[in-house]
Amino acid sequence: MNINKLIAISLFAILSLGSGLLSYGQGQKGVTIDKIIARVDNHYILSSELEEMYASYKANGQKPPEKCQLLESLIINKMLLAKAEIDSVTVDDKEVDNELDGKMGYMIQRFGSEKNIVEAYGKSIENLKTELRNQVKDQKIVEKMQRTISGEVKITPNEVRKFFNSIPKDSLPYIPAEVEIGHIVRKGTVTKEQKDKLVNQLKDLKTRAEKGEDFAMLAQIYSEDLGSAKNGGDLGFSKRGAMVPEFEGAALALKPGEMSGIIESQFGFHLIKLIETRGAEYHSRHILLRPDYNKGTDMSTATRALDSLRTLITTDTLKFARAARDNSEDKENAEAGGLLQDRNTGQAHLTLDASMDPALYFAIDTMKVGDISMPISYRMDDGSSAMRILWYKSKTEPHTANLKDDYEKIADIVLSNKRNNALEKWFTKAQGDVFISVEPEYKDCKILGLENGDDT
């Protein structure tokens, strides 16, 4: 049993950020009856989870594994969570929030805009983040448990060499062309005219509400948060920390029935009305107006800053990596010296093929290794406009795998195999520490070697 592979399968739907939920939920007609199909201690697996996970593969254009394998992967995921509770393994809330922000940014990039996400899911960005936060938290706990279990596993160069030499020469993998690309990003600034226009519109709406017009009706008509607008701007109850700080701070400063001033956040400009508080939760409505990032963004300051950095880098006065760490507004890659990373592997080597972002592909197609591009337009993960300069650091031509050029890739395989062995030993022991129950309808699935329908 390849535990690493099964854990990866169970995390797939989380990493896809609900794409399976979207394709499955919108494709159903009538009422779907949900039920519990497995239990691991106090963690339950619903039939809907299994179906959503299956649908997430199809939504991403991949062939889904067999449902028995998916169910086993979900049970393994729950075992890790159950053991984490027993062993008091936790993750920091800020780490969860940062991960969620990054994945939401990727989702915005994939859908094209926040508005498209809201229309697709029928939920506000804020509510969608609240729902997905628990999934991301579970993902981080599972990853921490994996590190706890197999973190002490080490490999030696001799083990890597021995593994490589065991591969038949005619079975060595073919490595496609790969590149290392760095970028430094500077965001455009919303023009004063654009800001003033939105602030004045919201002030006018506030005045109308103060004179007796229904806030909910105004939200339905004018708010650009389409998920909440159809419900009169109603965001439901929000836990502290679920909303961006600017929004939450303004909302919590209000008394029930009061409206805020005009609040600016990364999502745009808000007019907030507090409905009620309940312990650590608060219930609010809002009207959101967003800047027009295409027409209302001034790119001149960003372009000048990047031009100056490019001059310093090309004259060897400043190293690209230092310039990226100190100046790039793409914080996800800045600490890595601006190097772009493959979202699946976390590595800085990007495969040079059709899977690459087309804008990036065509930009480097006109460059040579070592070149620094002129400032070019860039769309941030949150949908805002920016400029960036690219550094074509390196290119590896396609070739048959060898130890000299591909040592790190081969070492990763050896380390993964060794960690999997450690995980398998841990799981053999852990099965006796938790209660596992699988419904009889899955009796033909061999789940962790259990006689299904029985408990352990």
Automatic annotation (TrEMBL):
Swiss-Prot/TrEMBL keywords: Chaperone, Isomerase, Periplasm, Rotamase, Signal
Record domain PpiC: where: 176-276, 279-376
Domain of life: Bacteria
Keyword Chaperone in annotation: yes
GO MF annotations, alphabetized: peptidyl-prolyl cis-trans isomerase activity
Organism from which the protein derives: Dyadobacter luteus
Isomerase among keywords: yes
Name this polypeptide is given: Peptidylprolyl isomerase
Transmembrane segments: none
Family matches, as SUPFAM superfamilies: FKBP-like, Triger factor/SurA peptide-binding domain-like
